Amino acid sequence: MAGQADVNQRPESNGSAGAEPSPSTVRSYLLNCGSSALADRAFSGLMLVCALSIFAIVLLILVELISGSKLTIQKFGLPFFFGSAWDPVNGNFGAMPFIYGTVVSSILALIIAVPLAVGVAIFLTEMCPDWLRGFLAFFTELLAAIPSVVYGLWAVFVLVPLLRQYVDPFLIKTLGWSGIFAGPNYGIGMFAAGVILSVMILPIISSLTREVMSAVPHAQREAVLALGATRWEMIRMGVLRNARIGIVGAVILGLGRALGETMAVTMVIGNRPEIVRSLLAPAYSMASVIANEFSEASDPLYLSALIEIGLALFIVTIIVNALARVLVWAVTRGAPARGT
Amino acid sequence: MASTLMPPPLRAGASNRFLRVVVNHLATAAAVGSTILVMAPLIAIFAYLLFKGASSLNLAFFTQIPKPVGETGGGMANSILGSGILLAIASLMGVPIGIAGGIYIAEFGRNGRLANMVRFTADVLNGVPSIVMGITIYTLLVAGRGFSALSGGVALGIMMIPTITRTTEEMLLMVPLNVREAALGLGVPNWRSVLSITLRTASPGVITGCMLAFARVAGETAPLLFTAFGNQYWSTSLNQPIAALPLQIYVYALSPYDEWHRLAWAGALVLIVLIVVSVALVRYVAGRGVLKGAS
Amino acid sequence: MGVAIEVSDLNAWYGTNHTLQSISLKIPANHATALIGPSGCGKSTFVRCLNRMHETNPIGRVTGTVRVGQTDIYAQASPVEIRRRIGMVFQRPNPFPTMSIYDNVASGLRLNGFRNRKVLDEVVERSLQQAALWEEVKNDLKKKSGASLSGGQQQRLCIARALAVDPEVMLMDEPASALDPVSTAKIEDLIFQLKSQYTIVIVTHNMQQAARVAENTGFFLNGKLVEFDATHKIFTNPTDKRTEDYITGRFG
Predict the structure, then answer these.
(1) What are the tens digits of pLDDT across the range A283-336?
(2) B259, B66 Cβ separation under 8 angstroms
(3) Apex CA B141: angle with CA B139 and CA B142, to 5°?
(4) Under CATH, to which class is B63-288 assigned?
(5) CA A127, CA A133: separation in Å to the nearest integer?
(6) Which class does domain A79-332 fall in?
(7) Which of B181, B186, B194, B207 to mutate to test the interface with C (most CBs of C within 10 A)?
(8) Nearest chain C Cα distance for residue B164, angstroms
(9) Is the Cβ pair C93, B295 closer than 8 Å?
(10) What is the DSSP string of A216-253?
(11) Are the CB atoms for C14 and C30 separated by under 8 Å?
(12) Contacts of residue A8, Cβ cutoff 8 Å, sequence gap at least 6
């Protein structure tokens, strides 16, 4: 069994001048390296601290926002969010016009964007030829990354004149009776904000819907096809039905983005803190009022009111985004890192 | 289960089948139609931006600061420099912390509860409006002290952290197990193995992830509105307000002067080019895979 | 010089799966020992317990004693220290893809802080010669990446890399199973030459390979060590009927 080989030969290295490094040099060096337990622990500790910074960021935001809005929380309490008066001069603040503007413009954006985004996603996932898909997917990703201010720039100089000249008069003529499209035609206003928002959230909803649809296993598609379904029926029952939850998540994510969108909206919404029926009238969103008036807020109460609006925006977007992530994760088992 | 997958019951007769085929074609038309309806204008927007920007771009744009109102010419050189400084501060903060966080959730936490919470929170943070970050840094660093480049850089840096954490994690997880095992099997200390083997193998992907975060915050305006604030002149001081490209575009877009509008378009093009390069790079690296020619 | 390995009452788990049950054996120094058995019998898990790689899996757990030379590797040393003394070659070649051939071989030393360039040069040459790869790559040491070699060359590169740290024991987990017959033959020749200086433990599901290279062979079945004896005895006159069934191909 156990041999008694006590060979101690070392291979001669051919053609190498100079001394052969006795293996014990290497071996003894390594034996003296010692345990790296301390260094390993320090390293993983440092990495851990940096990972925890994510939570620190959330905490920081909460702390600063809450302490910054103390004044108005104490003075107005909860009714702050239901008041419609925005009167910095007399110190009377109510956030309702901005909440209204944010919500309505976002819903408008969803109404326009969601059917189109889902349609695009269906096309790209199930119907698109391979050579085209790469380009369109790349282009969609590009659009999702374009800065808000650039969209705003385009909206101010191209979209708004377009709306003012062609779209709005048409809407007033056909739907003016309802009061939703009525009044002076400025071009800027709630409707313009809704449109540019829909342009901005469309790529995200579309990308995420595509991802969710791609996560549905092929077996599901094949099972439906094997029963004699047409392609649309296969999409409807084999893919959309299974991806339903994720698509809802994608839509909610789009909503989250729309709620917080600042620059492009600020440039076209009109900046009037009034709740009016017509979508063609100027309006104001939560992010916009902060963007516009923060630097000029001279007295502490004014500033506090704006910060409180920021706090509300923060909490709402956190909840909306968390909900969206949970829904998307349920279908894809692990949220994508790159896509927002 | 099978019953929920059944197509509508096939009644005898061709009419039902015909209806289903028609519906199928309508659906296809709707999908194609919406794609065209969406893509065509978006491509048009993109082309318009490129065109308008290119025609406004000249050398002076990169070398001169804005001229007084009424004079033609001038550029946004101070904004480009300012953005550069802000992004340098932001990267110094955001890149190391972000990469370290990504290393933690990829290599140490893996599927633990903490790692999952970090992952989830990072994703949620990515969706928070950037203006909120601006307010936070304002109350933290600006109130009582004044606008400053440093505060702007910090705001942008904090925004980079969640993004870089997630992309780093994604790239590190692509390094196959057998490469890590090879390092461990050699008796390399864990920390050395993570840095010199795993991170190094994933470095093309990690770097492009950082580039993407960089390009994203380069276009951010809202967090700078009340931190960096903007500046009409050259400035390199960290404690003074500083110009930034997206800020300047915003101000110029809303101004009544044509000359400033021209500068705004040119600035927008610069931002777009940056975005296109980063997105293309990320796709290229991700598509090629993290490992160069590994078996 | 290699050392002997003594294993006493080794048990290993993957989560709740009791993968190895009460393994005890003595692996002699400077010999090649083969471990054979059907898929899933635990032989790979066993060698991974010998260099404490099993515990790198979050659900891996080990109890029992493993003595390498004089050291109880679980109680008396850290995993990192142990793995410097016990080298491992894996089933699929895994050279570091971002490193050149030279850097790959030198990595075990460099990543532990070794700096002496002259000694590194010599170690790299010696290791590549031991791995019978020197002639093929000596002109491309720093130019070619480790991953650009053929499969058989890559595996020999991994062997050279493991040898460079001058371990006392070499563990090989089915080192030739992913390779073509010519490369396999080269690797077997290698093992033959190396075993005079190192203690080699080789896991293989190829019985002919075990017969060719190893003095001793252990047969694993369902997490238990059924029989451990001189190779020629295992293959010609095994004691246990299960061993005989496996050898003659009745299962596995």
Answers:
(1) 999 999 999 999 888 888 899 999 999 999 999 999 999 998 888 877 776 444
(2) no
(3) 75
(4) mainly alpha
(5) 9
(6) mainly alpha
(7) B186
(8) 22
(9) yes
(10) S-HHHHHHHHHTT--HHHIIIIIIIHHHHHHHHHHHHH
(11) no
(12) C1
Distance from CA of A249 to the nearest CA of B (A): 13
Distance CA C129, CA C125 (A): 6
ipTM of the complex: 0.86
H/E run at residue C201 = strand C199-203
Task: For residue B210, give both structure tokens.
Answer: 């950082």
What is the rounded (10 degree) CA torsion for C203, C204, C209, C210? 50
**Type of residue numbered C13:** W
Are B193 and C87 an interchain contact pair (Cβ–Cβ within 8 Å)? Answer: no
B/e letters for C125-140, b = 16+ CB within 10 Å, e = fewer, are bbbbbbbbbbeebeee
Contacts of A24 in chain C (CB under 8 A): 166
Q: Write down the pLDDT at residue B230.
A: 86
Q: How far apart are CA C113 and CA A334, in angstroms?
A: 38
Tokens 């203006």 correspond to B131
Q: Output the DSSP codes for B156-170.
A: HHHHHHHHHHHHHHH
pLDDT given for residue A337 in this prediction: 38
Mutation target vs A (from B92, B135, B184, B276; most A CBs, 10 A cutoff): B135
Q: Which of B212, B236, B113, B196 is nearest to B159 (CA)?
A: B212
- State whether residue C145 sits within 8 Å of chain A by CB: no
CB contact under 8 A, A27 and C126: no
Kindly report, as residue ranges, where domains of CATH 1.10.3720.10 are found in chain A: 79-332
- pTM greater than 0.90: no
Disruptive mutation site among C55, C94, C109, C180 for chain B (greatest number of B CBs within 10 Å): C94
